[in-house]
Amino acid sequence: MADFKKTELTLEERAFETAKILLQKYQNPNDLKLEENANLDDSYTILITLLYTEELAEEEQLAILSIIDEMKLLDGNR
User: Fold this and answer.
1) Which residues touch 24 (CB under 8 Å, ≥6 apart)?
2) DSSP code of residue 18
3) pTM of the shown model
4) What average pLDDT does range 32-58 have in this prediction?
5) How high is the pLDDT of residue 17?
């Protein structure tokens, strides 16, 4: 089981790591690419795509939703 627990990582780092783990696990029929220098928007796009195109485990869904919620909070504070 993948470890999606929050640690000392930034939001951008967590989004990248979560996207990377999920891209390795799922078939990736959309041919999504994640570069090492990907920004938050790149990771977010991949996470949203996977959320809507794959049957993710509950833990995986919650990890993505946590990142989305945190991004909404950041957008609200801008």
Assistant:
1) none
2) H
3) 0.80
4) 90
5) 94
